[in-house]
Amino acid sequence: MLLNWALFQPPILHNDVCKNCWIAILLVFFNCIHVWCRFPSYLPCDGAGLSRTIDCSNRGLKSVPIIKSENATTLLLNSNSLQEIKNRAFSGVPNLETLDLSNNCYPGKLRTPGQVCTLTIESRAFLHLHRLKIIKLTGNSLTTIPPLPATLTDLSLALNNIVNLQFSNVSKPVNLEFLNVSQNCFYRNPCNTSLAIAEGTFEGMHRLRILVMDFNNMIVVPRGLPPSLINLSLSENKISHISSEDFKDLTQLEVLSLAWNCQRCDHAAQPCFPCKGNKSIQLDPEAFLHLRKLKVLILRGNSLMHLDDMLFQSLGSLKKLDLSDNFLAREIQNATFFASLHMLQDLNLMFNYESRRTFDRLLLPPSFENLTSLRKFQIDGYFFRKLDKDGIHSLLKLPNLTSVNFRMNFIKEIDLRLFENVKTLKYIGLSENEITFSLCNSNQRDGEDSGANARSTGYLQHQIPERRGEYVDETRPEVVKPSQVFSFQNCSFFVKTFDLSSNNVADIKPENFEGLEDIECLLLSCNYMTQTLNGSQFNRLKKLKYLDLAHNRIDFYYDTAFTELPMLEVLDLSYNSYTFEMNGMGHSFNFIEKLTSLRHLSLAHNQIAMRISSELHSSSLNVLNFMGNNLNLMWESGTNTYLNFFYNLKNLTFLDISNNMLKTVPAEALVRFPPSLKILYVNNNQIDFFNWDNLTLLVNLEHLDLSHNLLHSLPKEPCHFHKAFSELVLRNNKITTLHSAFFSKIKAMRYLDLSYNSIKTIHENSFPSQLLGNLKVLALSNNPFSCTCDADWFIHFIADTNVTLPHLATRWKCEFPESEQGKIFISTDPLSCQKAYGSSSFVLSFLVTVIFTALPILNKLFGWDFWYTFYICAAKLKGSSTIESESLQYDAFIVFDTTCKAVADWVYQELVVNLESKGPHSFKLCLEERDWIPGKSSIENLYDAIYQSRKTIFILTNSYFVSGQLRQAFFFAHQRLLDEKADVILLVLLDQSLRNSKYLQLRKRLCKASVLRWPHNPRAEPYFWLKLQKVLTRGNSLQYDPNFSESFLPFEYNLQSVLWQKT
Prior knowledge:
Layout: H1 15-37, E1 53-55, E2 74-76, E3 84-85, E4 98-100, E5 120-121, E6 134-136, E7 154-156, E8 164-165, E9 178-180, E10 196-197, E11 210-212, E12 231-233, E13 241-242, E14 255-257, E15 282-283, E16 296-298, E17 320-322, H2 329-334, E18 346-348, E19 359-361, E20 376-378, E21 384-387, H3 389-396, E22 403-405, E23 413-414, E24 427-429, H4 450-463, E25 497-499, E26 521-523, E27 546-548, E28 570-572, H5 591-594, E29 600-602, E30 623-625, H6 631-634, E31 654-656, H7 667-670, E32 679-681, E33 703-705, E34 727-729, H8 740-743, E35 751-753, H9 769-774, E36 777-779, E37 785-786, H10 792-800, E38 814-816, H11 835-878, E39 890-895, H12 901-916, E40 925-926, H13 928-931, H14 938-947, E41 949-956, H15 964-980, E42 985-989, H16 998-1006, E43 1011-1013, H17 1021-1033, H18 1055-1060
Parallel strand pairs: 1-2, 2-4, 3-5, 4-6, 6-7, 7-9, 8-10, 9-11, 11-12, 12-14, 13-15, 14-16, 16-17, 17-18, 18-20, 19-21, 20-22, 21-23, 22-24, 24-25, 25-26, 26-27, 27-28, 28-29, 29-30, 30-31, 31-32, 32-33, 33-34, 34-35, 35-36, 37-38, 39-40, 39-41, 41-42, 42-43
GO molecular function, one term: pattern recognition receptor activity
Pfam family, one: TIR
Keywords: Endosome, Glycoprotein, Immunity, Inflammatory response, Innate immunity, Leucine-rich repeat, Membrane, Receptor, Repeat, Signal, Transmembrane, Transmembrane helix
């Protein structure tokens, strides 16, 4: 049986300690899983786990991502590069209601140069979506319609290569309400044929209400259309004849568009396709006879020269009629078909001019008086020089007229009093004419006008806008124009608007506005006004609230300018830089103080710099747009003239000083901003330093925009914003690092925009916890993020936060290291940067498992062997070094069988006497019965006896071989060999019973002197005692065989097993 020693046992953990250790490990593991689970659910798409809309648009995807969500009802996959849609592509989103797959593979000519693509849809890709209602397949180069679920209500198939409209026999969407198959065959997507509709295509579609079939080269109105239609669009085809049978069955139709089928090409802005012989579309007099519910009819761009009265006799419900871009100039003057349109509200007669001709005046027919419901009238591009009461008296009598537009007609002469008695009018449009307020009549006759006509022809070629029915890809992302920081109220909020913009008005006199005393909004932008206003020009317009004088050359000299307008609220004086750029000319803004109702003022883009009023004064002004001027010169270092420029605007809440080439906002100027200021725009300057400390005086500031500047960093000191401050915009700067101290005093910030900077890493100390707790939106897109382990905290923050992070899945990209460049930031595995920690945790947990499982087993089976091996190896590593023993009290410890009287007598009578009392040396021996300390355990006494004696003498007989005490003493002696490299064992054999022991034979071979036999011959006994005394005085290592080396020490490991074997 193995000896089990307390001194050499490995430490055993208490059960509670072990349990707590495992719990800690499991908590770490599950915490990691929790972090991963809370990470954005549908990478690279936008959408949280419970979101009903998943946005995967514009991701450059080539295949449908694997998405699993029971909640998702809308999936956007438009504007990617999808190549194949498999049968099980949407199996993870079984509750989809809307699916957008548009613009993944445009038809040939619409593709970007060099693009080659094909989109394949497997036959059952959509059939398992039993709740699908809307699917958009626009712009995918499809040649056939894939099988669709019967639940579908909206289907878009525009911009494909479908030339034969036919649904699959597998599944027909009989519940369709909207179908768009436009732009499948036209000049930008040629097919060399026209769209054909297979027989029975619309059979059973009793719910179809809207059908769009524009741009398909169709030459006739298709047959078999469902009677349920209320909206039919056949624009931009090549239909040259409309018969009485074409719409006979469409009695529910409310909207019909036949625009641009026989196109007028003399002012076309794109390829034009007229009918044969430049003829107009042929409309049968009974073409619309059965359309008694029709409300909107669009006949634009069909080269019409004449309209039969019978066409409109049954259209008593018509509310909108578009006859623009035809040749109806003469027809309009004598038309009688208006007589039956009593319900018409919107009439469009734009660009019906007669080629190379300008009429002397506009003449509207008497039948106009029957349009008693007319509200909106447009006759732009008719080309006439004079607008007077005699020509449009039938229009002016209409009781419900609210809007008239005479834009782009080359009008030179007009008496504005003709609108005086039309009290219902809210908008009068006379823009883009040649009005100069001259009362001189033209001497030219009504006929050829070579100068005007030459001008008009050239003018048309460049100015007339494209036809509205032209190809428009509504699904492509719009080109976003630079947003204006400030825009004035729309004139639609005012009772009456008069638009004289883009004319030739150079001077204004009070009598010019006679009869317009009730207008509230006057638009005079883009004229040639160089007048110095003195407060008399608008005397008649006492009710005016909105005045637009942008893009002129107004001279601001008199303090009384605009003072005749007591109710003026909005004044736009932007882009009047002409006089401000004149060297040496002075300007006065003192008139602003006298406009007591003024709330909005724009002085933008005037290049204002010098020789102006040193201060602006107003107690009513709320909004000031001062962008695009030269504050850099006004606030130039060393000058104090304009430091108080904005200070006396007592109620100013909005100030825009962007685009002023500022390198900084001087502290002296910033502290003099009105305390009432709530919104401050300082964007698009050259600011590389900002005086943050001076913002403390702006106690009401809520929004600060410093975007598009050159800021490199934010201060390390706190910025003391007041509690009202909520929005800070710092995008498009060069900020590289953030400091939490800067944000530490911001108490209520809700919006922080740091996008388009040079931020590589967001650390835990970048934002204070208080800020993150209050933020609603944090914009960090388009920064060169470093996707290394330094981003570990930020990745977990993204996973846990409730803050909205715009463009997280599209514009947060890695820039460093190079191997991660271009990857989406959140695609980084949140655990990948914890490899050291994760690996350590795994190894730790594995080792703990193995150790606590294996150790008890190994200890039970091989405990002593492992520890013996351990100490042998330790001795090897320590080399020849020895452990200093404690002070030795005995020369030898005698181990014998105390129960055997014969052996005990020999020890006490012979051994003790000869070693302690006789001979040249007196040895001090340790005997169990004499020297062991009473009260100590046997094992402790045995241990002390061996370790406090130079030698341990084993008195062996056959009867004592199995003694437990001898075995324990033998183990201790060998343990001392391992600890101290001291061989202390001496064997004394009292009989011949062990002469064949392999261990004794090995012992004799290694150290013969350590094995002694008691001689049978009494005469040899003195020699025995001499040899024993000699051995006791010398170390065993000195008596080893010369051929022995330390490499044989491992053989000592076998002592235990060898000793147990009986010879």
